[in-house]
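User: Sequence recovery, please. Input:
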């Protein structure tokens, strides 16, 4: 159960209290509601000698969601826990729409605008908007919680994913330098991978097209793990449909294609890209930062009976 944040009359953070205690303070008119979420009350007086317990804010960054938890360092009790859902997909969609509008503008008879692309410079540490959003979301909530409770330290899961080894667990030595497509063009690689046949109907000796298993319109990428081969008829028939919808009546073929394709590493790449950016943004807050691994996070969650 998450506790209730408390501020004194000067808006200085005090230790969180049990919801029952907060209810009593509100009923006796000794406090008022300051914020609905996270639920915070403000006292109508300043305590003379409040008992302060050190709180540690723990952060588990992720691609789609980031977990945060406030832990009482004295008792080990979880005071507050939440998940931040990132808007990266919505941001990318909005940018794609803006790009389409700007491209359409080139064909319209509008006033001449002096080109500005040559004057733009990316600052050091620049991140793509969808990645920047993830970092800023976490930073915003850290600052918000620092205003609501006496946080004395931060813990950040700082883990790097080995993308090559995730694709091929047996990789070693010089294979890291050669990469997946050493000696191959992507198309030739796909021809050998999919046995020079259409992935959907199995036809051979026909012109084959590179097909996205998860359409780019639905968030698919150009990674080789999302590519297969298809004849023109199958490619047109599938369009932007989800492959599970397109092959709903052929479960065996669907299972074969999904097994043949490799899992996307997009989320792991996102975490790799943003991990140090988040760490560097947290440093100016002036709190000591403890860095840990995913294994340590899993151990702590298991010890506390969390999923």
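Assistant: Recovered sequence (307 residues):
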């Amino acid at each position: 159960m998450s506790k209730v944040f408390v501020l004194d009359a000067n808006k200085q953070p005090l230790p969180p209290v049990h919801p029952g205690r907060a209810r009593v303070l509100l009923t006796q008119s000794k406090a008022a509601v300051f914020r609905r979420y996270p639920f915070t009350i403000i006292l109508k007086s300043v305590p003379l000698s409040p008992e302060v317990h050190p709180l540690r804010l723990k952060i588990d960054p992720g691609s789609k969601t980031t977990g945060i938890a406030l832990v009482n360092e004295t008792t080990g009790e979880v005071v507050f826990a939440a998940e931040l859902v990132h808007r990266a997909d919505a941001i990318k969609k909005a940018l794609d729409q803006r790009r389409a509008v700007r491209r359409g503008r080139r064909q319209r008879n509008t006033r001449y605008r002096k080109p500005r692309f040559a004057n733009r410079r990316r600052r050091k540490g620049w991140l793509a908007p969808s990645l920047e959003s993830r970092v800023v979301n976490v930073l915003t909530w850290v600052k918000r919680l620092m205003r609501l409770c006496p946080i004395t330290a931060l813990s950040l899961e700082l883990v790097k994913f080995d993308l090559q080894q995730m694709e091929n667990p047996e990789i070693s030595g010089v294979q890291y330098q050669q990469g997946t497509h050493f000696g191959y063009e992507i198309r030739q690689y796909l021809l050998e991978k999919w046995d020079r046949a259409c992935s959907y109907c199995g036809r051979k000796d026909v012109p084959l097209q590179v097909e996205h298993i998860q359409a780019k319109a639905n968030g698919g990428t150009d990674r080789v793990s999302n590519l297969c081969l298809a004849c023109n008829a199958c490619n047109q028939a599938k369009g932007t449909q989800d492959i599970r919808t397109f092959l709903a009546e052929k479960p065996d073929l669907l299972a074969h294609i999904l097994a043949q394709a490799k899992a996307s590493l997009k989320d792991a790449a996102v975490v790799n890209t943003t991990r140090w950016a988040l760490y560097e943004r947290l440093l100016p807050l002036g709190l000591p930062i403890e860095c840990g691994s995913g294994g340590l996070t899993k151990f702590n969650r298991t010890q506390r009976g969390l999923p």
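The first strand starts at residue 4 and ends at 7.
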